[in-house]
Amino acid sequence: xxxxxxxxxxxxxxxxxxxxxxxxxxxxxxxxxxxxxxxxxxxxxxxxxxxxxxxxxxxxxxxxxxxxxxxxxxxxxxxxxxxxxxxxxxxxxxxxxxxxxxxxxxxxxxxxxxxxxxxxxxxxxxxxxxxxxxxxxxxxxxxxxxxxxxxxxxxxxxxxxxxxxxxxxxxxxxxxxxxxxxxxxxxxxxxxxxxxxxxxxxxxxxxxxxxxxxxxxxxxxxxxxxxxxxxxxxxxxxxxxxxxxxxxxxxxxxxxxxxxxxx
Amino acid sequence: xxxxxxxxxxxxxxxxxxxxxxxxxxxxxxxxxxxxxxxxxxxxxxxxxxxxxxxxxxxxxxxxxxxxxxxxxxxxxxxxxxxxxxxxxxxxxxxxxxxxxxxxxxxxxxxxxxxxxxxxxxxxxxxxxxxxxxxxxxxxxxxxxxxxxxxxxxxxxxxxxxxxxxxxxxxxxxxxxxxxxxxxxxxxxxxxxxxxxxxxxxxxxxxxxxxxxxxxxxxxxxxxxxxxxxxxxxxxxxxxxxxxxxxxxxxxxxxxxxxxxxx
DNA sequence: CGTTCTATTGACTCGATTCAAACTAAGTGG
DNA sequence: CCACTTAGTTTGAATCGAGTCAATAGAACG
Lengths: 263, 263
Prior knowledge:
Two copies of one chain form a homodimer. Chain A is of the alpha+beta class and 263 residues long. Chain A is built from nine helices and eight strands. In chain A, the strands form two sheets. In chain A, strands 1, 2, 3, 4 and 5 form a five-stranded antiparallel sheet that branches. A three-stranded antiparallel sheet of chain A has the order 6-8-7. The first copy, chain A, binds a DNA duplex (30 and 30 nucleotides) through residues 148-149, 180-182, 190-194, 196-197, 199-200.
């Protein structure tokens, strides 16, 4: 199984926000699922669907995309379960769309219900996952509503970086960025043309580089400062060390960690 | 008890999104609480607080307000429990602020935990309440991110109207509006000056009136059309009849239903 | 090797912000 | 009960960030 076991991704994510017992981890190993592969801008789920499974994202990025406006309202990274709320409210209000190539594990909803009954702590952790998502949404509103487009893009970059690092990815401040500038624009509620200019400005200021489908953050501290980024809202257990950690040095943009997915 | 029993407000709200059994309703009557009164712009809870109770809003409006930016990320109406998520993640990320005079019932968190254990259906309904709030957040992002300020304000007005009507208020398309134009601006992510001009435009188009702390919607259909408002995302059980219902006629703005609260 | 998607650039336009001032309503204390 | 104070609303003028349009350049793909 080339992507490893799906439950380890979920375990990493849950561990980033809550403490799991041995018993909880064992329960996670009982997960059954089927794997799905998607190309960029494929819809994994569509508005109005009432799926009987939940999507555990294993590789790549997913987003909720409003079909009417094209607005992206959340972005998900490996270990996230974007539609966990369908356990309680099955109908989808937006498209669940792939940003770049994606690998998903479709897990029966019944599985989450059953492990929630068996472990109160696991049930709590899963709810924290939903609460953390809601906190992200609130922050997204603040971002779009109150920041200018430069810090808006910077803030989104910071958020994704910290979230990736919380599940063991992007340790070297390089993140796969298979999304287009238009995707970024849809997430930040700016026009694609303007997104391009913002990225150029971020490059000009030597805060990051974006090439070969990889973003390399070259000045993490300045990026955080520009974005006025405070990771508290993410609800991570060990968030401060990440920010305080060794400053990312000027990384030469060689050997990009491209996200490659067979399809 | 001049405001009636707090649990009836919650019962109304839960009934608007889920079906409750007799047993569920009986459980709701066992609620214990203390009443709190607040003036406009008071903080009911502050960022960083870890309260041991949840706020059930009985009268007036509450909002989550980000202290850094002043951005409002949600608005709550009677029957809502804005901090229900603290059952699982206690720390608050924003101020919970009164918009106009407010009456709140502080309900022990343990109460919600206990009734959730006693009735799976009630537990589910409470979770739907949280999910509905998240759906509102997503829609708020779409609103701020993709609509111009005129339809943005119109959309917010539509949302609040439909939510009020779902719990039996504003049946005549008049809603108490104790908030200032600056509050509205903070919710719609526009400047206070611009908010004023938008309101004038809405008045000029004869879609609504705003006087004596009351908004009177005089042309509901046109307002819905301007806002491209679709109430599906609210997760209400009987939402379409509300929209299809008898069109609100031109209401003469006499005898405003002012929200008066002793303090 | 052409087709398609994505990125880039410049010029023009416009919605919205800002600043400043005037006006109105509401609340307070003498 | 009126003068004073404060909070909220309204107006105009100048400015600016961001959007739109349109054309070009480049990268990716079959």
